[in-house]
Each structure stands twice: as C-alpha cells, then as structure tokens.
C-alpha cells in the first residue's frame, strides 16, 4: 500500500520541482511592480527586493553565505551621472546548497535596475521620476535564479557539485556587485567550477532564439551541449566577457555561460513591464539550462579557456 502510494506521488513530486511559468510570473510581477519603483540601488525598494530573494533562499533551505546572513553589503558608486548621493548602500544576496562536494557551481542574476531613472543609463528621453520596472532586465533573471534554487534544493538528488546562488546588486552601475563578490569572496575562488548568468531572459523571440554566451570559455562546453534538446530555439556564442556579471567571472578566468533573449525597444526604458514577459518560453529556457548544468556535472571541474 505504502509503495503504491509513493509511486503515485513520485511523478507529481518531481514535476513540482521543475521550472514553472506560473511561479516565474509571480516572481516577476512582484519584483517589477510599480510598488518596487524600479529597484534602484540605494532605494528602500531595492532593499525590499533583496529581502524577497533572501526569504526565498531561506525557504529553499539554502545556507546563508553572505557576511551578514544571506547579505553581503557593500557601497556602490554612481559614476555615469553627477548626483549628490553618488555613494549608495548595496548588497549581494548569497545562498549556498552544500552537497559536501569539492567544487561549486555559481548561478547568478542581478536584481537591481534603474529605479526612477536618476542613476544614468536610461534610454528614455525624459527619464527622471519615471518608474523603470525592469521586468525583463532583470526580474526575469532573478525569477530564473529562484527557480534554479528551488529545483536543485528540492529535487532530492545530492549532486556531485555544490551550488552558490547569487543575486547581485548594483549591476546597472557597472557590475559592482559581482566584482565586489570576486574581490571579497565568501568561498575560495579556486573552488568555483563555472558561473551561469541570467540577464534578460523574459523576451524570447522565436526568430532569434535564446543566446547562450561563453561557449568558448572552456573546451568542455561542446561536450556539455552535445545532444541537448529543447522546445525553444537556442544558439551559442563563444564570447564570455560581455553583457552582464558573467564578464566579472570571465575576467577571473572562470568558465561562464550567459543566457539572454536579446534586446528590444523597451530596453532600459520605463516600458520594460511584466505583461510583456513570455513566461512559458522562460520556463523552457530554464529547463534547457538545467539540462546543461546536469550534463556539466557529469564532467570534472572545468578548465578555463580565454576567448580570442
Ligand atoms: Zn541587466
């Protein structure tokens, strides 16, 4: 009786761990709502977003790996525009899944955005005071990060690698959170296997497909991609040194993968809104990402290759 019950339960149990468009939508609606005022670095709403992520990490039973629980606070600096409050409090949020393995895979996404358009880099003609919701950039990547934490912490598998999930602060001010982490690591850098970055994965365009950068950053990636199938279109790009926080890891000679669904007319504008996100496609992107990570875990710790 008991075993029959378990057999019936198992498929639902496993299914519940895989990425879901419904949860993705919920995360993005929360993080990119007008209430969050664009999650500008130094704003109370940015702190609120960090709190949302930390609460989720806690719920997923991750070990805090910041310097203050899940948080790794630092001071960010606005450099692109001259503002009286150029120094701003920022934080990374770090949750660790300890599988007792020698090496660790980093999965990251930045959670800050442009706030009310007063920190430079808005592409609106009159950005001041307008909420830059940043649904694609990068509530979509944070939703992906939370889904990865959910999947790997609840799949009842003890993987041969540990996972460090990092939500980076102050990316929009120039990769400041990822650089701060790498200069002040809470885990030895030599123990990191590779880094997977998600930045703007919510605007899947079937003509383009999802781009996966970093293919040239290790000779192991071609093996990892072999035989991988997806319901969505994807393509690889050898470069690993651009686009987002992955560039900071690449600079430290760590192999990377960078997921990105491409630019669009709402990029860095107040119109980057939640209702424009394709959560079904994002679910498929995350399933593809899981396949790749699981393939990569069949391989020994990767060796970095610089991309020319
Ligand atoms: Zn971004």
TrEMBL record:
It comes from the Bacteria. One of its GO terms (molecular function) is metalloexopeptidase activity. Residues 92-288 form the Peptidase M28 domain. Keywords: Signal. It holds the Pfam family Peptidase_M28. The keyword Signal applies. GO terms for biological process: proteolysis. Residues 1-16 form the signal peptide. This is Peptidase M28. It comes from Spirosoma linguale (strain ATCC 33905 / DSM 74 / LMG 10896 / Claus 1).
């Amino acid at each position: 009786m008991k075993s029959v019950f378990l057999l019936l339960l198992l498929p639902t149990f496993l299914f519940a761990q895989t990425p879901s468009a419904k949860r993705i939508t919920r995360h993005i609606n929360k993080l990119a709502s007008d209430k969050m005022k664009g999650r500008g670095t130094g704003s109370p709403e940015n702190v609120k977003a960090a709190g949302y992520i930390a609460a989720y990490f806690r719920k997923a039973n991750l070990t805090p790996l910041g310097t203050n629980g899940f948080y790794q606070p630092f001071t960010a600096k606005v450099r692109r525009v001259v503002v009286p409050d150029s120094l701003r409090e920022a934080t990374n949020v770090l949750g660790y899944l300890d599988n007792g393995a020698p090496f660790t895979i980093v999965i990251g996404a930045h959670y800050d955005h442009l706030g009310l358009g007063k920190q430079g880099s808005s592409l609106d003609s009159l950005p001041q005071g307008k909420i830059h919701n940043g649904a694609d950039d990068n509530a979509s990547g944070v939703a992906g990060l939370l889904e990865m934490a959910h999947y790997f912490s609840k799949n009842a598998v003890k993987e041969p690698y540990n996972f460090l999930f990092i939500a980076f602060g102050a990316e929009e001010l120039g990769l400041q959170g990822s650089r701060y982490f790498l200069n002040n690591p809470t885990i030895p850098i030599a123990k990191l296997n590779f880094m997977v970055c998600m930045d703007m994965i919510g605007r899947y365009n079937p003509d383009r497909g999802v781009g996966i950068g970093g293919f040239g950053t290790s000779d192991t990636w071609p093996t990892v991609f072999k035989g991988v199938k997806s319901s969505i279109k994807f393509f690889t790009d050898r470069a690993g040194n651009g686009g987002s926080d992955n560039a900071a890891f690449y600079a430290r000679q760590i192999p990377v993968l960078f997921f990105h669904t491409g630019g669009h007319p709402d990029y860095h504008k107040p119109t980057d809104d939640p209702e424009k996100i394709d959560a079904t496609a994002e679910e498929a992107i995350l399933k593809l990402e899981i396949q790749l990570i699981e393939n990569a875990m069949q391989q020994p710790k990767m060796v970095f290759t610089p991309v020319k």
